[in-house]
Amino acid sequence: MPDPRTDAELAAMAADLLDHRLRRETRSAITDDGPLSIDEAYRIQSYVTSARLERGERIAGWKLGYTSEAMRVQMGVASPNFGPLTDAMLLATGDTASPALMQPRVEPEIGLVFARDLVAPTTVADVLDAVANAVACLEVVDSVYTGYRFHLEDNTADGSSAAQVVVGPPLSGIDALDEIEVALVRNGAAVATARGSAASGHPALGVVWLAEQLARTGRVVRAGDLVITGGLTAAAPLEPGDVIGATFSGGAEVSVLR
Length: 258
Fold this sequence. Notes:
Layout: H1 7-23, H2 38-54, E1 59-65, H3 69-75, E2 81-86, E3 90-92, E4 105-114, H4 124-130, E5 131-141, H5 152-157, E6 162-170, E7 181-186, E8 189-195, H6 203-215, E9 226-228, E10 236-237, E11 243-248, E12 253-257
Parallel strand pairs: 1-9, 3-6
Antiparallel strand pairs: 1-2, 4-5, 4-9, 4-10, 5-6, 7-8, 7-11, 11-12
Helix pairs in contact: 1-2, 4-6
């Protein structure tokens, strides 16, 4: 069994990921050069996050990755993961995605905005009781790895590919989030449909798992945090000139341009 990576090695890997993003150059997966444990991946993620905070960004919430079967199949990943969202990632509906993105894709998601802290252990009922509102969202993912070729550990180190989040209007039916329907629309044509239950059976179930994972390092979901609960459909590529949107049951719509 290989020796664990040192803190210096993990910090260097984080710096390399940040450097590739700054230069807008993709790279091969870390695991192409040797094994990486999931704990090491989250430590790399932590170094990347610290660098973001040092340049003035602040934590605005969390993203859940691979909570739906559609996304796990598309990316060949078997387990969920999570990553931080910062205020610099947030967009309003109708905004244009950052020109710094390399290979962006878009996923429709249900976002939960929290009225108070959520501390593990918790339940679905606790999660829903702590939520101020549910919002229509699009996540713009942008992997640093060429062609999105990675393993779960690589993706986790890269913050679960989080790049930007488009925050739309409130969703109706917070008591039945698993029944909400969504259509992903690219340039006027529907490319995928799903229900809220695609996210772990219920969007709040993933948040229960997230709270447990955060507790391992003394963190919690804070009041005011936005948690996006996982892509409900396979991700659609966002090419120059594209408009991608999502329409949720109840009429909520959200879109992003490139």
